[in-house]
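Lecture notes, unit on binding sites. The following record was shown on slide 14. It pairs a sequence with zinc ion.
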Amino acid sequence: MKKDLFGAHLSIAGGLETVFKRAAVVGAHAVQIFTKSNKSYFAKPLVAGEITAFTEAWNQSGVAVVVTHAAYLINLAASDAAVEKKSIASLRAEVERCVQLCIPYLVLHPGAHTGGGIEVGVEKIAQNLSAVLSEVPGDTMILLETAAGQGTAVGSTFEELRAIYDACDTEIKHRVGICFDTCHVFAVGYDLSSIEAYRSVMEKFDAIVGRKLLKVVHLNDSQTVCGSRKDRHANLGKGHIPQSVLHAIAHEMSERGIAVVLETPSVDGISEYAEEITFLRS
Ligand SMILES: [Zn+2]
Ligand SMILES: [Zn+2]
């Protein structure tokens, strides 16, 4: 039987390679990590020993896909030039770390235009993404995550995500993809309250963005209602998206080779994920 791609965002406390021990405990075949603190722009460069330890532990694990989530501070659409410059440098370092660790996907929040307007934001994100990817050769793709629609966030609609992709340089387009977060998409107003509603959302996604760009799904329930524009993740079955819909999304995506990563609330970073992955496999 083909192995599913269910997993979770797990901690790297104690060293990057320790994530694979946690993955084994929760039964994850896909993991998402921060390769450095998610609250700072920069980190010490990786040393050879860290890279080897990570690669060896990965090879010996049951994990098929590793995904990195970029730091939250990065804002490629910032109207403040200093923030934009720092964000570009920080993203470049994130891509370099992924390339060193052979991590195929780096999930990035597209950005917030902070007053500059959506169109300017889209243009800036595309230009800055293109510059970073052309400066850092390798196979790592940057996946733009569907935004929850808070504040001046860019990339909360399928049209905006497509516009960013279209505005990227042709030479690097093969390294740009999408991460679909069920909680965020629901918060923006895409209805996931039934299987039929989900199917029509995916039809829209296919028509506007294109299924081939979709590489990772963040499987989260939402504490707030559809259209709330609030980013409040809930455990599966504890929010407003029916558990049966989330179960169906997970199976459909995994069968297509798309990694399904939980980012649900967890007290210890382990127990809820173990339960939720067991549920997904049921
Ligand atoms: Zn995110
Ligand atoms: Zn997410």
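Take-home: Strands lie at 6-9, 30-33, 65-69, 105-108, 141-145, 176-181, 214-219, 221-222, 233-234, 259-262.
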